[in-house]
Design goal:
Length: about 160
C-alpha cells in the first residue's frame, strides 16, 4: 500500500518525482533513441537540441528537490510509460520513412503536452507552498517545453507526406 498524501507538499513531492522520472527517461532513453530513428534533418536537429535542454530539465528538477530540503527521488509516470509503449508499437509498423517522421513528431508533441500539463500543476502547487525559487526552476522547464512544442507543430506541416 502506498503512503497517503496528506498535504500539498506531499502531493508536490510525489508529482515532482514523476516529473523527474519523465525527464530522465526522455534525456537518457527516449530522445536518444528517437534521434537515431528520424530521417528528417530538421526533426533530428530539433530532437538533438531538445535533448540538451532535457538534460538541463533533469538538473532543474533535481535542484527543486534540494531547494525543498528533499533528496531527488524518481517515481514512474504511467502516462509517459504508456505513450512510450504505444509509440514503439505503432512506429514498428510504419514502412514509409516520411510517414514515420510525421508520426515521431506527433508523438513528441503528445509528450510535450503531457509535460506541460505536469509542469502547470507543479507550478500551481509551488505557488500554494509559496516556493518561488522552485517555481522559477520549473517555469524555465515549462517555457522550454512550450517552445519545443511550437517548433514541433511548425515542423510537422513540412513532414506531411506530399508536403
Amino acid at each position: 500500500m502506498s503512503a497517503k498524501l496528506a498535504s500539498p507538499r506531499d502531493l508536490f513531492l510525489q508529482l515532482l518525482a514523476q516529473m523527474l522520472w519523465t525527464e530522465r527517461m526522455l534525456a537518457f532513453e527516449i530522445l536518444p533513441e528517437l534521434h537515431t530513428q528520424v530521417k528528417s534533418e530538421s526533426l533530428a536537429a530539433l530532437v538533438e537540441e531538445h535533448l540538451g535542454q532535457t538534460h538541463q530539465h533533469v538538473a532543474r528538477v533535481e535542484s527543486a528537490f534540494r531547494t525543498l530540503g528533499a533528496e531527488p527521488a524518481s517515481g514512474r509516470s504511467a502516462p509517459l510509460a504508456g505513450a512510450k509503449d504505444q509509440h514503439q508499437e505503432v512506429a514498428a509498423q510504419i514502412t514509409d520513412p516520411r510517414l514515420a517522421d510525421l508520426f515521431h513528431a506527433g508523438a513528441a508533441m503528445q509528450t510535450e503536452h503531457l509535460e506541460l500539463a505536469g509542469y502547470r500543476l507543479l507550478l500551481e502547487l509551488a505557488e500554494t507552498l509559496e516556493r518561488d525559487e522552485v517555481a522559477r526552476l520549473l517555469e524555465e522547464n515549462s517555457k522550454e517545453e512550450r517552445e519545443a512544442l511550437e517548433r514541433l507543430q511548425k515542423l510537422s506541416f513540412d513532414l506531411r507526406p506530399g508536403g
